Structures are given as structure tokens and as C-alpha cells.
């Protein structure tokens, strides 16, 4: 039987997200594998990987909020906005920055903000990724994007020495947020160049760091013929979604992709439909043209 489900992988530093996909393809013996939100090579942390039928959820899981723990260094900026890049601008922090100064800046960054993607990022401009331009030394105009910072707080003392200021922070943010750029903005608001000197993703959607397995742990499970134990059912990724449970008659209609009546109690525009055995059948949404009806957006259960 083909493997299917979601493995909460702990991605280690030094690997790209696509490296991890290739590794999981080899490990699980299937090409039907997809990751749920790019992590830079220098960042470690939670990277849920969808296997088999669970790949139908990649677009939804990628859109979920993410949580990170990072470190900002104030005093110099880099080409990549993190510690892997070359130093661009330096300005020693000569004044004393106290914790309330930092906390006020972090408070200002909560909510909806605009970001310009770093030159060293995978955003495409005119058919090429920004990092391809950056490697050629070509500067191009970058489109800004709106992101949401749900929570941003300092998690360490503010340390000041040798002209630099460092502090750690925790952030919960929407998809598409560049935490590197967030660290740079912290510095700008404090009046100094800055970069992100460390970053770990601690949660992605419904998956947290304490659920994750490393590649070494997965390889060990495979040797013991227990690899299926690593897979969460795809219902886990949908556990916080609005949910409707249907009877057998409606289940048959859902499995045929039918347009069906929308319960008056359901206000959300998108939701999951389950059968009485607890299996998620499909993702449905309000019908755009037929009042009081709903239509399938994504079929999940196979007949």
C-alpha cells in the first residue's frame, strides 16, 4: 500500500526545503511528496511534509500561520539580511538601548505591515527568482507584500557590547512573512542597520516542534519497519477548521462531488465535511451563485 499522511520533519540547517522533499521521496519510496512552506538553508525547524494523498493539502497548509524564535543583531546589515551574508552597512550603537526601547518597536510591528522581499529570496520577478538576480549583482525593483504579525515579543534581555545590540524574540505570523526583513525593520525603527542572526521555526499550522522527527529518527524507524508510525493522518492538519459531519445519504452525494444544501448554522466560507466514521471527505465552500448551497473545493477521500 502506498504511504500517505503528513510527517512533521525537523529540518536541519544546511538543507533546502527541496532537499528535504527529495530525501522523503527516497525514504518513503514515492514521488508524491510536497513541503508546506519554504525554510531557508540557514534556518532549522518545523517543516511538515505531505506524502501521497495528503499532498492535496499542501496549498492549505502553506497558507497557515507560522511561529519562529529568532535573534536580531543591531549594528550592521548584510546582503542576505541574515548572518550568512556579507556586511553591507555598519553603525555602532553608541547610545544605550534599554528594553522598553526595543519593546516599543516590537509593539509597533504587530498587526498588518508591508514588507519588501529580500534580494536573496525565491520571489519571482520577470520570470526569474530574486536570488538569481542577486548572484549576478543585478538590482531589480521588488514588489512589496502585506503580511500579518499576530504576536511579536522579546524573549531575552537586551545585550549591548562592542557597538552591537542583540536580543531574542518570538513571532507568530502569516504566510509569506520574511522574518529576516522583520529583524532589519526592527533596526531601522531603532535607527541602526540590523540583520537576523539566528532563526528557528517552532510551529507551522497544526504542527509544533515537539511533534517533529529528524531524518535520522525516520531512517531508524524505517530500519525497524515502523515508518508508518511517523505519519499523521491528514485530518490532523485540518483539526482547527470549521467542521460538518454528514449522514450516509449526504456522504454518498459528497463522494460524487454534488452541490448540496448549506446548513444555516454554518457561517464560514470554507469548511471540512466528515462522515460518521470520522474520515474527512472533502473541503467544501459556500456556493458563489446559489444561495444556501455549498460546493466542493477539494475532494480528499478516494472512492
General description of the model:
By secondary structure, the protein is of the alpha+beta class. The chain folds into three domains: 5-63 and 205-237, Pseudouridine synthase; 66-201, Pseudouridine synthase; 241-299, Archaeosine Trna-guanine Transglycosylase, Chain: A, domain 4 (Roll). Helices cover 20% and strands 34% of the residues. The protein is built from seven helices and 19 strands. Strands 1, 2, 3, 4, 7, 10, 11, 12, 13 and 14 form a ten-stranded mixed sheet that branches. The protein has a five-stranded mixed sheet with strand order 15-17-18-19-16, with helices on one face. The radius of gyration is 22 Å and the shape is globular. The two termini are 16 Å apart. The mean pLDDT is 92.
Keyword list:
alpha+beta; Archaeosine Trna-guanine Transglycosylase, Chain: A, domain 4; Pseudouridine synthase; 303 residues; 7 helices; five-stranded mixed β-sheet; ten-stranded mixed β-sheet
CATH architecture of the largest domain: 2-Layer Sandwich
Shape: globular
Number of domains: 3
Q: Would you give the CATH topology of the largest domain?
A: Pseudouridine synthase
Mean pLDDT: 92
CATH superfamily of the largest domain: Pseudouridine synthase
What's the number of helices?
A: 7
Report the order of strands and helices.
EHEEHEEEHEEEHEEEHEEHEHEEEE
